[in-house]
Specification:
about 30% strand, seven-stranded antiparallel β-sheet
Amino acid sequence: MLIATDSRGHALKHPSMPAIGTMLADLEPGDHMLVERQDENRKGDWYIQVWFRDETTYQLEFRNGVPAEHYQTLTTSQEKVGQTLVDWAADKPDWQSGFTWDNIGAMFPTPTTEAPE
């Protein structure tokens, strides 16, 4: 199941592709939105998110299940961000194309499993 959430707390279950585009277009500088895939067959966190950093820059990130698989890119193109969000939501195989993605997984702590006492 897909869930899209914006920084105002507005959440949509099973968002349509036009709804994702509208949420993106409604972002103001400093706002963000998240589209997450909740699937019992996929362990971990699977999402794509965008932060409208300022009047011209979008920070786009995605995570493939674990913190070590967390990537980021920057762009000034709302159109490219919108297409990437829609393609990710549709699970298209080439949704990542068009950007150079940096792995920022080292910024996130790796969960540890503590031994029971």
